[in-house]
Design a protein that fits this description.
By secondary structure, the chain is mostly helical. The chain has four helices and no strands. Keywords: Membrane, Transmembrane, Transmembrane helix.
Amino acid sequence: MAGPALRCSFCVHSMLKKFHKIDRHFFPQRLLTTTATTPAAWNYQWKPSPYPKTQAEREAAAKKYGLRVEDYEPYDPYKDPGYGDYPKVGWIGASHKDPYQDYDFPHMGTDYKEVLHPDADLATYDRTFMALFFIGFMATIYSIHFISVEYGWTTHMPMMPKQYPDNLWIQRGRDPKDMPKVVHYTFEPASSS
């Protein structure tokens, strides 16, 4: 694995040095070698194993997650597929834990190798704060709207009612003979005073 990556980084370095005249100390070869051979940043080592079928596999999975065999209960593979041998733990959000405990990850309220709920990222401190912020923001907007409607503040552009020909007298089923005459404007000369 390191051989092709090393050759590839050397080729890239030589091309860059040749075409762009970059100094060796400015763009070291070691930088290209380390970036080409390091694995990606996800936790592929912590991927759960398949669902335990025997008692020995259950004991190994319980030991893997630091639980007693009596406390270990995996997710049902038919109801929750994809969790493998991951243990079914209770939902405890960060806001329900002791805020004065010295956690390994204080921003998440967890310790190293602590078994978490699969959706534990939904209840960290910052998510709780964001939920409270959202609820407060929506309550403020609703209060402003309620007060403006209650006290008659205009929340729209003021307009006159739309004018229809004959004011929809006939369309509403009324007799056309009884229709009142509405004069919107006249062509008479203005009176001089």
